[in-house]
C-alpha cells in the first residue's frame, strides 16, 4: 500500500480530523512520555492534537496550537505535531477509522442568516453564519439587538459618544459614518485649538484637522459623553468608569468633574 500524506494543516483548514485505532503516542520535551492503547486522535483546525483513551475527559497526550502538524496514512496512520522544543508523535498500529468533519467556533445564537437561513452565532468579536460562512466583525463593546435591519441581519448597539443602533454589516450601515455625523468638528484640539475630526486610523479617533502640523489625536472609547472634563475635552462614561477623551488626562479625576 502506498503512503498518502496530508501536508501541514493550513490556517484556512476548518475541519476536525479524527483517527481511531491502536496507537502509540510519544511526547518529547524535557522528558519522554509514552502510551499505547486503542485511542481516538483528534486534530483540530488550530493545530491542537488530542489523544483520548477510554478513561475520563482529559487526554492521555496532547499538544495545544502546535506550530506544525503532519498527518499520514499507511497501514494505520501517524500524526506528528511540533511546537518549539515539544514534539507529539502518534503512530498507528491498526486503524479502526478515519474521518474529517467541518468545524466552526461555537458561539451564542443571535438569529438567522438572511442569505441561507442557517444560524448566526456570536463568538470572538464577530457574528458568523454556520451555513454560508458570512462573517461580520463587531465593534468593541457592541451588543446585539432584537431588531433587524431591512437587509435581514440583526442590528447592533455600539456606544461611541452616543448609543448608535446600526446594522451589523458595516457595508450596509457604517458606525464610522454615524459617529462622524454626530461628532466631526464638535470638539477643539487642546494643543492648537483647531477642530478635531472623526477619522479611522486602525480604530476610530478624534484627530486634529491641522495634521501633520499638529499630531494630536485621541482614540474614541466605548461609552457615552456625559459632560466636559476639566481640560475641556468630552467626559465619557465607560464600562470601567468615567474618563476623559484623552486617556492620559487626570483632570477627570478631580472633584466636580
Automatic annotation (TrEMBL):
GO MF annotation, one: DNA binding
UniProt GO cellular component terms: chromosome
Keyword set, alphabetical order: Endonuclease, Hydrolase, Nuclease
InterPro entries associated with the record: NucS_N (IPR048302), NucS_N_sf (IPR049173), Topo_IA_Znf (IPR013498)
Residues spanning the signal sequence: none
One of the protein's GO biological processes: DNA topological change
DNA topoisomerase type IA zn finger domain mapped to chain residues: 188-217
Domain Endonuclease NucS N-terminal PH-like as annotated: residue spans: 16-95
Pfam family, any one: NucS_N
Domain of life: Archaea
Protein name listed in UniProt: RecB family endonuclease acting on branched DNA substrates
Source species of the chain: Natranaeroarchaeum sulfidigenes
Lineage: Archaea, Methanobacteriati, Methanobacteriota, Stenosarchaea group, Halobacteria
Amino acid at each position: 500500500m502506498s503512503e498518502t500524506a496530508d501536508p501541514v494543516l493550513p490556517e484556512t483548514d476548518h475541519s476536525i480530523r479524527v483517527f481511531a485505532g491502536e496507537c502509540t503516542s510519544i511526547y518529547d520535551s524535557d522528558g519522554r512520555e509514552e502510551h499505547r492503547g486503542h485511542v481516538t486522535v483528534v486534530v483540530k483546525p488550530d493545530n491542537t492534537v488530542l489523544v483520548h483513551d477510554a478513561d475520563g475527559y482529559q487526554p492521555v497526550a496532547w499538544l495545544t496550537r502546535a506550530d506544525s502538524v503532519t498527518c499520514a496514512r499507511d497501514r494505520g496512520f501517524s500524526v506528528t505535531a511540533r511546537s518549539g522544543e515539544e514534539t507529539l508523535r502518534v503512530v498507528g498500529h491498526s486503524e479502526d477509522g478515519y474521518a474529517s468533519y467541518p468545524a466552526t467556533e461555537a458561539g451564542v445564537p443571535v438569529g438567522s442568516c438572511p442569505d441561507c437561513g442557517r444560524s448566526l452565532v456570536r463568538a470572538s468579536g464577530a457574528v458568523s453564519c454556520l451555513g454560508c460562512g458570512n462573517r461580520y466583525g463587531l465593534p468593541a463593546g457592541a451588543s446585539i439587538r432584537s431588531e433587524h435591519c431591512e437587509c435581514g441581519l440583526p442590528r447592533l448597539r455600539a456606544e461611541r459618544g452616543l448609543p448608535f443602533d446600526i446594522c451589523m454589516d458595516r457595508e450596509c450601515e457604517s458606525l464610522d459614518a454615524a459617529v462622524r455625523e454626530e461628532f466631526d468638528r464638535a470638539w477643539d484640539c487642546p494643543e492648537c485649538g483647531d477642530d478635531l475630526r472623526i477619522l479611522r486610523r486602525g480604530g476610530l479617533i478624534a484627530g486634529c484637522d491641522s495634521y501633520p502640523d499638529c499630531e494630536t489625536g485621541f482614540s474614541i472609547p466605548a461609552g457615552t459623553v456625559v459632560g466636559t472634563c476639566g481640560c475641556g475635552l468630552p467626559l465619557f462614561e465607560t464600562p470601567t468608569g468615567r474618563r476623559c477623551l484623552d486617556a492620559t488626562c487626570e483632570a477627570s479625576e478631580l472633584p466636580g468633574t
